[in-house]
Design a protein that fits this description.
It is a single chain. With 260 residues, this protein is α/β, with parallel strands linked by helices. It has helices spanning 49-57, 79-89, 91-94, 112-122, 152-161, 167-172, 180-186, 212-223, 249-259; strands spanning 3-8, 16-21, 28-34, 61-65, 100-110, 142-146, 198-203, 228-233. It has a single domain (3-259), classed as 3-Layer(aba) Sandwich (Rossmann fold), CATH 3.40.50.1820. It has an 8-stranded mixed beta sheet, with helices on both faces. The chain is globular.
Amino acid sequence: MADTYRVAYGVHDSQYGILRIPDAQGPHPVVVSIHGGFWRQKYDLDENTPLSEDLRDRGYATWNIEYRRTGEDSSGWMGTCQDVVDAINHLAQIKADYDINLSQVILLGHSAGGHLALWAASRLSENVDDHSGSTLLIPIQGVISLAGVADLRKMWHIHQEREVDSPVSAFIGGPPEEMLESYHAASTIELLPIGARQILIHGELDENVPVDVSVGYHEKAVEQGDDTELIILPEAEHFKIVDPSSQEWETVVGAVESLV
């Protein structure tokens, strides 16, 4: 019988994850699921419950993680990012209790979660020198960014053009011209190459995070020598790619299968 566990990786109320173990003989590959919501407190890991359950039913252990979001203590840059790394590293501490295979770990993030997944993967790169002191201790097979906010500066400018409050400013602590070093250290496009296998999936109809964000990131990643694939889904908007009942979701499943 498939099992579900709530597991804390820290002492804060938001430092926990939901671990789902398939009803099959292990050890199981692990998909780390990182939800979006522009890092805001009103969005939580329930956003990724359907996809986590779907992947569990397909034979993957899923580690659907929560993290401190803007508005919570010590959140934003860089507490939120550190939470994600700590949650992934915590898999090593619980491996003995659950039948999981830490040689087959994939990071999958949607929207702001795509940013966090790519940022966490960059911790394995020897090219990163952002003085964050954040180290990823778990090897990963690759990263799947679903409509990921891979370029924080570009996303900030998009919100400026729309004349809306910038969730990027809230996350980083200010606009790019005032927080140059923080944007450089937090925006994954500025950390390339990260050395990890990356699959970017983005809907062409996405208005929340325009597809150009992934297009620009992919172009630079390829230029920098990263093993990166971009899949643009012509009929998809922001949320269809994380809906297990959609046809587009099968593209995501195929990406997961290609990494294990």
